[in-house]
Amino acid sequence: MGPDRTKTGRARAASGATIGTMDHGVREPVRRGRARLPDGRHLGWSEWGPADGTAVLLCPGAATSGRLGFGGGLVDAAGIRLIGLDRPGLGASDPDSGRSLDSWAGDVRCLIRELGLGLPSVVGFSQGAPFALALAAHGLVNAVAVVSGSDELAHPRFAGSLTPEVARMVEAVSDDPQSAESDFAAFGSLDSLWEVISTTSAEVDRAVYTEPAFRVAFRRAMEEAFAQGPSGYARDTVLAMGRWPFDLSGITVPVDLWYGGSDTSPVHSPDHGASLARSIPSAARHLLPEAGGALLWTHSDVVLTTLLERAPGTSRAPRT
Predict the structure, then answer these.
(1) Where are the beta strands (DSSP E) in 23-86?
(2) SS3 of 178, please?
(3) Among candidates 243, 272, 77, which has minimal Cα distance to 175?
(4) pLDDT band at 271, cuts 50/70/90?
(5) Do residues 309 and 284 make contact, with C-beta atoms less than 8 angstroms apart?
(6) How buried is 263 (Cβ within 10 angstroms: 0-12 exposed, 13-18 middle, 19+ buried)?
(7) The predicted structure's pLDDT at residue 313
(8) H-helix or E-strand containing 294?
(9) Which of 253, 56, 47 is nearest to 137 (CA)?
């Protein structure tokens, strides 16, 4: 079991609470592209920071393309090459019916090779958590930051602790994944997901999501995600809510788990990452009591600084 750094996280996060107070560090990508995969499909990506910087991949949250970045000017100052990934069927990435978390890792392996990234780090936000952890399980990254991340809700350790609505979704995925995927596709749209976000988020998070500049960027990323229809979102949701095909205890690279004490999302972690920390021997859990689920944008600096510090051989001083 890794250390719980609640107090440390609280103290260090104080310096980041005011970063990007108007747009919360959201910027337009400076580069965009598509990597060709061996089967002829393409994987889309968006990029910020110096092209020769330390590579950090971003697995975004549900129903968003990789163009919704974070950190604003911080990535330039820290020499970070931040690369937001479009999962298959979302954004600029071609669909891959029947894909899995393991096949996702195979796709990213090809992208890493094509872009010459070596052994990058990865950030997984919200539903992007299992996709980021899959990369670690396959030995493709040197460190992981899970931010407001979904836990393996289908694991028996959560029996009886999920909200009734979430429990029904997890059960539906377990009983009949194909039917559940069809149901998620029927529900999935920009407007329906935005309604959920705007009505169920805590006030501290609504203040971020509805800030005009951030709202425009957020919805644009969602528009891109649904440009090919809802199938990509639906498949992502089935993969995230089903059993994960890798052993969390086998992950050996540093993993930082970031959660906000004011996060009210029922599909993140019911215990704010406590059980996830117990499942990953190399994990350190940071619980920021006053933060919400949007801490990827409200506390970008401490997330990035800690990631660079923990990734072997990648710590870099800010550029002047």
Answers:
(1) 31-36, 42-48, 54-59, 80-85
(2) helix
(3) 243
(4) very high
(5) no
(6) buried
(7) 72
(8) none
(9) 253
Residue 214: what residue type? F
- Rounded Cα distance, 211 and 26, in Å: 11
Side chain identity, residue 78: A
**Predicted confidence band of residue 4 (pLDDT cuts 50, 70, 90):** low
Helical spans, DSSP H, in the chain: 6-13, 74-77, 101-115, 129-137, 164-175, 177-187, 190-200, 203-209, 212-225, 231-241, 274-279, 295-298, 300-310
Q: Are 147 and 295 in contact (CB under 8 A)?
A: yes
Number of neighbours of residue 31 by Cβ within 10 angstroms: 12
* Alpha-carbon gap, residue 82 to 48, rounded angstroms: 5
Q: What's phi and psi for 250, nearest 5 deg?
A: -85, -5
**What is the spatial distance between Cα 157 and Cα 166, in angstroms, rounded to a whole number?**
15
310 conformational bin, left if phi > 0, alpha if psi -120 to 50, beta if neither = alpha
Contact between residue 273 and residue 151 where contact means Cβ atoms under 8 Å apart: yes
Indicate the pLDDT class of residue 19, thresholds 50, 70 and 90. Answer: very low
Sign of the dihedral through C-alpha 148, 210, 289, 25: positive
In the chain, the amino acid numbered 144 is V
289 vs 248: CA distance, rounded Å: 26
| Cα gap 22→33, rounded to integer Å | 28
Backbone dihedral angles phi then psi of residue 256, each to the nearest 5 degrees: -105, 130
Tell me which residue of 1, 15, 7 sits closest to 286, measured CA to CA.
Answer: 7
H or E segment and range at residue 124: strand 121-125
